[in-house]
């Protein structure tokens, strides 16, 4: 996955250093590696640099061997599964430990607001309602990026640390402890707030340009430097058409703006899509196990408006950015779809041809099979393209699905150009 042009070596450069290992003396290789790292970090602030050190530190898991970067791989748009045997779930620090949901990308997440409820006007009824927005993770359980850092570090299925203090102690004993002291003072490892300050350094790194380079073909199109192909342009039109794809309803952009920053391709809201159950997830072998998403967010009742129907949020998960979507599969919160085309086709035909996506149970199609029947009414069936019934014509046909997929592929960030050798 591409990083910011000023803050990452090109893929070509990385390949060069890898090949150099076969023939170069150890001292020369070490020097080249140090130079490569220096170039990669040249434009980071000291705070961002500390965050990068923590982000890449494999000694911070229990047992050692897993870093944040292991599951948020820069080469895969800051997501991945750490070599897990199950594509949908990341492997943790212990060999038998797997996550519970598909690892979300960290690309562009710094733009997400803190978790809150906001007023939104229903386009069909005209009524205003309060809806949850923002936060981090699929269920928004972390208000912001700094809070998000704590999750993987302390999760038994992920980095498996027993406490914040244990993490701070590891950093105190590590190679970059002096960098932390220079930045935050000699008492950084003694203060109860030490972990939070270190977490904010990671958040600063995750907010740096390399996590949101805006370097895709679509960005160049917005800047007037490139043109979309006929199929890509058709897909873009369908993407925006509120009577066809209507993807822009949740994956928003300012249609009159040519600024890439105005096209984040998410409104950071939550939706219940009725995703099929993923049989590959070990927890799903228990028929009683159900991932209800947002309604089970810890502390939700305290931040929700008084009298809010929390159960109405069961089955909802956060709408991710579509930037880099072509390289961040598998898709949806449970990774049930390996193919980007299948996701778009699911949106288009979930309700016109449910047998295509859901299993048979007692002779009938078990629609929304990953959600208890009591919450089926939470599934979005009002917005286009979901407003169809079995046997009706989908809002978009197969060729139009292909066009939308072609457009989505233009959202993949490109590598920084290779630096020219000095003569």
Residue stretches low in confidence (pLDDT < 50, at least 5 long) are 1-22, 419-423
Summed up, the helix count is 13
Q: Which structural class do the helices and strands define? A: mainly alpha
Amino-to-carboxy terminus distance: 30 Å
Number of strands: 6
- Backbone shape: globular
State the share of residues found in helices, binned by percent.
25-40%
Rounded mean pLDDT is: 91
Radius of gyration: 23 Å
Strand content: under 5%
The helix/strand order is: HHHHEEHHHHHHEHEHEEH
Largest sheet descriptor: 2 strands, antiparallel
- The side-by-side strand order for the widest beta sheet comes to 1-2
Care to describe what's here?
It contains 13 helices and 6 strands. Strand 1 and strand 2 form a beta hairpin. The longest helix is centred in the N-terminal third of the chain and has 16 residues. It starts with 10 loop residues before the first helix and ends in a 15-residue tail after the last helix.
Compile the SSE list and pairings.
Blueprint: H1 11-20, H2 26-41, H3 46-55, H4 68-71, E1 116-121, E2 128-133, H5 145-154, H6 164-172, H7 177-184, H8 194-206, H9 217-222, H10 230-240, E3 270-271, H11 300-303, E4 317-318, H12 340-349, E5 360-361, E6 364-365, H13 398-408
Antiparallel strand pairs: 1-2, 3-4, 5-6
């Amino acid at each position: 996955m591409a990083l910011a042009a000023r803050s990452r070596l090109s893929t070509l450069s990385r390949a060069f250093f890898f090949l150099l290992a076969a023939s170069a003396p150890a001292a020369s290789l070490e020097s080249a590696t140090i130079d490569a790292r220096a170039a990669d970090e040249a434009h980071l602030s000291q705070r961002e640099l500390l965050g990068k050190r923590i982000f890449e530190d494999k000694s911070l898991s229990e047992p050692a061997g897993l870093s944040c970067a292991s599951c948020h791989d820069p080469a895969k748009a800051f997501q991945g599964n750490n070599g897990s045997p199950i594509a949908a779930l990341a492997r943790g620090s212990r060999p038998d430990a797997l996550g519970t949901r598909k690892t979300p990308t960290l690309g562009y997440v710094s733009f997400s607001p803190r978790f809150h409820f906001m007023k939104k006007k229903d386009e069909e009824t005209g009524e205003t309602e309060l809806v949850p927005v923002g936060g981090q993770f699929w269920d928004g359980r972390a208000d912001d990026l700094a809070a998000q850092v704590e999750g993987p570090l302390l999760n038994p299925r992920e980095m498996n640390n027993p406490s914040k203090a244990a993490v701070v102690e590891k950093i105190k004993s590590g190679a970059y402890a002096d960098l932390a002291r220079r930045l935050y003072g000699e008492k950084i490892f003694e203060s109860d707030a030490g972990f939070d300050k270190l977490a904010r350094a990671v958040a600063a790194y995750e907010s740096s340009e390399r996590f949101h380079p805006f370097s895709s073909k679509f960005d160049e199109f917005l800047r007037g430097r490139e043109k979309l192909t006929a199929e890509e342009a058709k897909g873009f039109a369908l993407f925006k058409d509120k009577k066809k794809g209507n993807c822009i309803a949740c994956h928003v952009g300012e249609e009159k703006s040519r600024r890439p920053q105005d096209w984040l391709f998410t409104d950071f809201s939550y939706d219940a899509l009725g995703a099929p159950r993923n049989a590959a997830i070990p927890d799903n072998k228990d028929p009683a196990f159900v991932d209800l998403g947002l309604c089970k967010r810890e502390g939700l009742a305290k931040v929700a408006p008084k009298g809010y129907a929390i159960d109405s949020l069961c089955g909802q998960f956060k709408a991710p950015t579509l930037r880099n979507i072509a390289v961040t599969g598998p898709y949806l919160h449970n990774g049930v779809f390996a193919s980007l085309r299948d996701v778009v086709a699911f949106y288009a035909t979930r309700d016109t041809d449910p047998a295509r996506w859901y299993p048979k149970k007692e002779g009938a199609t078990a629609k929304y099979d990953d959600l208890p029947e009591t919450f089926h009414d939470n599934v979005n069936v009002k917005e286009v393209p979901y407003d169809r019934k079995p046997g009706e014509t989908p809002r978009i046909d197969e060729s139009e699905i292909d066009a939308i997929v072609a457009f989505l592929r233009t959202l993949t960030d490109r590598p920084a150009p290779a630096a020219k050798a000095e003569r």
